[in-house]
Amino acid sequence: MIRVGIYGGSGYTGLELMRILLRHPGVQVTGLTSRKFKGQPLSDTYPLFEGLTDIRFIDASPEELAGMADVIFMATPHGEAMAVAPAFVAAGKKVIDLSADFRLRDLDVFATWYHKHTAPELMKRAVYGLPELYREEVKKADLVANPGCYVTSAILALAPALRERVIDPSTIIVDSKSGVSGAGRDPVIGSLFCEVDEGFKAYKVNGHRHSPEIEQELSVLAGQEVKISFTPHLLPLNRGILSTVYASLKKTLSTAELIELYRNVYGNEPFVRVLNRGNYPNVSSVKGTNFCHIGLAVDERTNRVIILSAIDNLVKGASGQAVQNMNLMCGLREDTALDMIALFP
Amino acid sequence: MIRVGIYGGSGYTGLELMRILLRHPGVQVTGLTSRKFKGQPLSDTYPLFEGLTDIRFIDASPEELAGMADVIFMATPHGEAMAVAPAFVAAGKKVIDLSADFRLRDLDVFATWYHKHTAPELMKRAVYGLPELYREEVKKADLVANPGCYVTSAILALAPALRERVIDPSTIIVDSKSGVSGAGRDPVIGSLFCEVDEGFKAYKVNGHRHSPEIEQELSVLAGQEVKISFTPHLLPLNRGILSTVYASLKKTLSTAELIELYRNVYGNEPFVRVLNRGNYPNVSSVKGTNFCHIGLAVDERTNRVIILSAIDNLVKGASGQAVQNMNLMCGLREDTALDMIALFP
Amino acid sequence: MIRVGIYGGSGYTGLELMRILLRHPGVQVTGLTSRKFKGQPLSDTYPLFEGLTDIRFIDASPEELAGMADVIFMATPHGEAMAVAPAFVAAGKKVIDLSADFRLRDLDVFATWYHKHTAPELMKRAVYGLPELYREEVKKADLVANPGCYVTSAILALAPALRERVIDPSTIIVDSKSGVSGAGRDPVIGSLFCEVDEGFKAYKVNGHRHSPEIEQELSVLAGQEVKISFTPHLLPLNRGILSTVYASLKKTLSTAELIELYRNVYGNEPFVRVLNRGNYPNVSSVKGTNFCHIGLAVDERTNRVIILSAIDNLVKGASGQAVQNMNLMCGLREDTALDMIALFP
Amino acid sequence: MIRVGIYGGSGYTGLELMRILLRHPGVQVTGLTSRKFKGQPLSDTYPLFEGLTDIRFIDASPEELAGMADVIFMATPHGEAMAVAPAFVAAGKKVIDLSADFRLRDLDVFATWYHKHTAPELMKRAVYGLPELYREEVKKADLVANPGCYVTSAILALAPALRERVIDPSTIIVDSKSGVSGAGRDPVIGSLFCEVDEGFKAYKVNGHRHSPEIEQELSVLAGQEVKISFTPHLLPLNRGILSTVYASLKKTLSTAELIELYRNVYGNEPFVRVLNRGNYPNVSSVKGTNFCHIGLAVDERTNRVIILSAIDNLVKGASGQAVQNMNLMCGLREDTALDMIALFP
Fold this sequence. Notes:
Four copies of one chain form a homotetramer. Chain A is an alpha/beta fold. Chain A is 33% helix and 19% strand. The first copy, chain A, folds into two domains: 2-125, Rossmann fold (3-Layer(aba) Sandwich), CATH 3.40.50; 150-314, Dihydrodipicolinate Reductase, domain 2 (2-Layer Sandwich), CATH 3.30.360.10. The radius of gyration of chain A is 20 Å and the shape is globular. Chain A binds chain D through residues 170, 173, 175, 177, 194-195, 197-203, 205-206, 227-229, 231, 233, 235-240, 242, 244, 246, 280-284, 287, 295, 297, 299, 301-302, 304, 306, 308, 310, 345, and chain D through 170, 173, 175, 177, 194-195, 197-203, 205-206, 227-229, 231, 233, 235-240, 242, 244, 246, 280-284, 287, 295, 297, 299, 301-302, 304, 306, 308, 310, 345.
């Protein structure tokens, strides 16, 4: 039985890790930290756990938590993970960081969008935890940077087309829409029910921190530097990201051929589904699951492809993908505890 | 491996049966009928099943479906089940009916609220499938009438207090609120998004068909005829029923004593949770699960109890309870495939 | 042109006052205070005012605001109004308080539910601003205590039945459901979108501060002390309160007779509508308006009445009623600027 | 007093016309037709009108309705308006058609997307009723084709940039998101609450009927044939369209310069608001109003503009714009009865 510690577990990604790991046959959560809620049962904060677990939040140091666990998930805000990750790695633990602290390979880019990195050596060592791109590296990693939610949806949408050189990288537009849980559980006015319900807007136009992360990975896939337009929007719903991606074709391709190309790439992936022609993904079809649904269309009149991808931002966009990475790192079956079926309606 | 047939499986209760049974280790769904969608893959109607099952709707007669399955779930509208149930029972199948056709013991009452019953002999044979009240009878039954969703929430809220004679049965008021999935998937104006969203109303005041079903079971529990006031309301959300139940105390009782009384009754129940003092259930804490959460308070100023119960109308209020009954009828562990953790947020 | 000042105007009731008063032909808002947002245009906080008004929040003292206005609305949190009201009254202004500070006539009851009152003399002078009960008093008042939102819905539902002595006051149960805007705009976890959406629960069972206010007014109407059971619930929608009220009849009465009784009382009221038999109110039909819709049913089997009332908690439950009171106090037509038609869907 | 007839008034655009026209000081609705609801009071279908109007649906022929009214709104499904419009025009009435029947100038294009046109002569005579582009023509028209909702949002977003030749017309991408009321009130499965709530998806990718209408008007503005990529999405909310528009710049332009360009064009428009730099529109800020809010950004890294426009699909996208057109046609002040302030929250 693998012992798991969750560092900073009171937010929605911590909640989602608990939801998944309580049903994982190979692990036991032995430590769950929160300064704010220390001493309280998890089921006081999230009554859905009533009768399912007695676990309480503890206020443990990284060293203490390392002493209790073999695998560590860091579910802290950006900036905190790089402060504590060295302790976990030094103790020989397998570490999965759900924050942005180890996602960017370029320290200058990181400093531009966040602040000066305090663990630059560790950053080099971190593996970018998108199994569909880096499965083998993840298996050998001791520090995995779990991708951002928007990023996961954008890269899975674009990877096959970019790698096969069928689209022009300079024409990529990613129009993304996310549910409110992506903003976390901080009590801020912008996340209040009345501010969000019956509303819809773009935010951080031209300036979302996920842009450099998307561009980093798309550049690797394209073999050249890629700059995109990325616009995030806030949906009045709990869970889900839909990304609508546009790009110009470099050669003539039918929708059927494009679908075949994607199925060749993703055919064996446990969590990616390429939909039939004329079908387009709905975030409600992946709610609560680790799946990514992808729909494809070629607009022959404008010679553009339109790629639609849907994920659950808390699962494939965060905690589910983190467990997927843990499974790979620990030699378990990749989909262990991740066989959820979407809750609809 | 038990073979399961679902008769009339295109609605939300059929969908929910599939969601649960696909993860049930002891059964296989061998037949799923729908006249309307015959020939189509389930995943066309509900894209969440994409890549998870190849099952297609068939248009099989009861006799044909009986030939393919050991256990039959009937998820048809009221009135159809009694027409086809005789064929299933005659073929020696274990049958669970999710409609109202076999829930009422009194044929006259049934005729008043529905229409003349066409299988009166079978009605006498049917067991009322609320395991918390009739577990032993369900184990031996071949025809189980799965309770209504409102009814389940009301009876679980009231059973301990009525049986222990601490409340006056003539004072019971059940004020219930249900999510929209309780209305099914029929395309009617009243179920349209724009008619329901940002709205809230009572409906069928004094005239909901669940009233006689609630009264039937409460009368058994009270050992006397019980008449209640029952008001259903429509909530602008997908899943969940919250019932707020009021009754006058027959003797002095503190909230702590009331909670203890309920815990004595429900302590070993796998799916009922009695919350601590001061905690009251939220439908979002049981969403997607077979749990019933119950909160209790004594209002000493008015000498009334207030009992709050929350269930997911599609799970404990329909398909989850149906699987619970199947597990009991088939000698399986009662909670097999029912260990879901609520999806929140 | 009457000059209006709003003290503490950055919350939802302040917003709603501005929405109504900008279309009021007889008044001009000359001062709008907020310590937090001072100096900022109202349209920065609420972009819906873009291009409609240039007004900015100022951080004015009560004395300063009094110097700028003839009528003062106090839209501050409970406890603050009683600190500043004396200054407004001393300056000879007409004052309407939207908080609870002047609603309770009994200082001990106030102290029990809130804290020691610091302006007890003023409390005696305040008129309870429910025009349907106290129209003539409001016309002459210089300090009006605007009723609570739940209270307005409960009293309008019960007043005719209580006054005409057709129900037993000891049997009253008020089961109320409110939209989230009733909780205001404070950034607290419980009001976050993800905590509320797809959820429904009761809160403050047996302990909501509106209970004594409801009982105070019902006691006046009944001519005897009345104690009720009152349970508030939180609806996943922006605006609206529906109260479902139960009480036992003291004499035999048909639904038609009950409706007639209510229409006799409310027939000339500009904002109360008694629905036809079989119709029950929906909060979406009064959204954005100052109306109260009332539906009535007699349950002959249990000899109880069921009364349903719907209001918009921010309009008839707060700012609309406040403007209605201002109109009365200033000798204007009572419905000036209050002729909104509900926004549906 | 201008007499107004509404032909086909039981849907949401008919409802919205009634909501606006009941508060219009210069008109009276003298006829409201519906075959389905004939004889019933409007307030039975939409209880929000309780006590506000006694009008009932009638089943009048075009000739009969023409005899009762000076101005006719046609709020019928596509295909019906062209059958009845000739009668209204022949009777000398001013006619505003809210359907698509008279929006396309090219009969072949119309036939491709709809079916053969049965009133081709009238089509030539119709004026495209977007006042921001065709105000003077509308004033003189007797038949106005009220623009589509998506179209209005797209054209208002693009008109200044296209006319001033600052963007490359071949690079335009319109990613639009609409609330559910845009689908009307037909009881279809896809519009059910449970199918939409907590979901988000694109639909009619590459094939929405609004595409040719957008392209027609953009081509006029650009002075050359324009082909765009247009993707509509369905938002889980009642009202509102947000369009996110991308295009490549033909010359270097700062965001500030772009905003100035738009303000020069729209500065005197009563219903278009160009937001300050860094502000982006939210559909909740225009809910229930005839406003269009526009936000602008230049992405210097990719040399693209991002234009965001928000409208209420039932108001500026349908009935509000129709009343705006009526005001122009009748020589009334353009914003009469259209001074609504958004209902938020």
